[in-house]
Amino acid sequence: MGFTTLNGDQLITHSHGKILQERKEFVLDYENDEYIKSIEGFYDKFGYISSLTFKTSRDRDSEVFGKPKGKKFVLMAKGFDKLVGFRGRSYDNCVTALGANFAVVVAPPVKKLEAKGGNPGCEEWDDGIHEGVYKIMVSSEHSAVKSAKFEYVNGYADGQYQTVNGNDHVKIIPGDDIKEFKLSLGDEYITSVEGHYGQIHNDGIARELTELIGFKYITMLKFKTNKGITYQALGNEEEDSEYVGESFVLGMEGHKIVGFHGMSSYDTLNRIGAYVKPIDSP
């Protein structure tokens, strides 16, 4: 089995296993931005992949490669629309496992708002684009945000809302100060996020060290919704004056937040950004 991928203007061919029978191809119109959205396949009782079918952004399906037998699987990441690469395993002349890497496709009317916060993180994270936000979980320590985790609304089927968890950016551990908020499903959405970042005024050596190195942390975070509700995850108006730094707002007039992205270090949420789309847009 082989794949040809596009890296800038360069086409790169990858081959896995051995081609023992007649070669078949499925060609995408990449010059007009056609891409793979999902893959359906089957694997047999021995663990070998017996068939694959590719679905594209133009609602076009490939032919079925192989013969479907065994157990069905689907490679599709909700919120991450575009398949940008493959991973897996092969043994002798057969592919025994197939995985996929997905990326976010930011297409109008969705807009990506730049991540705001303190120091750059060593890991960039992205929850992708969804229909809305359902649950917010924020952990903090020493007046700084450690982690923010979100659960998103991804449709309505069989009489109930379908939700999906975002990434676990920084692991929440016992002892953290944790706040959790749930929005009203179906009619409540986030219109803006307000935050503040700066140096923490610790005592003694800890304070001297943070000032010397210049570390900046997210020290206030709150989420506002269309129902006039503010979910205060950390900080308050009186405390904001105790920090040296900057405030920020994520949001656009007439838009709702449909996903988050940002940067994290191993134990701190460093920056947070958002995806927004018009409130009346389907």
Automatic annotation (TrEMBL):
<dbReference type="InterPro" id="IPR033734">
    <property type="entry name" value="Jacalin-like_lectin_dom_plant"/>
</dbReference>
<dbReference type="Pfam" id="PF01419">
    <property type="entry name" value="Jacalin"/>
</dbReference>
<keyword id="KW-0430">Lectin</keyword>
<protein>
    <submittedName>
        <fullName>Jacalin-related lectin 45-like</fullName>
    </submittedName>
</protein>
<dbReference type="InterPro" id="IPR036404">
    <property type="entry name" value="Jacalin-like_lectin_dom_sf"/>
</dbReference>
<feature type="domain" description="Jacalin-type lectin">
    <location>
        <begin position="110"/>
        <end position="278"/>
    </location>
</feature>
<comment type="similarity">
    <text>Belongs to the jacalin lectin family.</text>
</comment>
<feature type="domain" description="Jacalin-type lectin">
    <location>
        <begin position="1"/>
        <end position="104"/>
    </location>
</feature>
<dbReference type="InterPro" id="IPR001229">
    <property type="entry name" value="Jacalin-like_lectin_dom"/>
</dbReference>
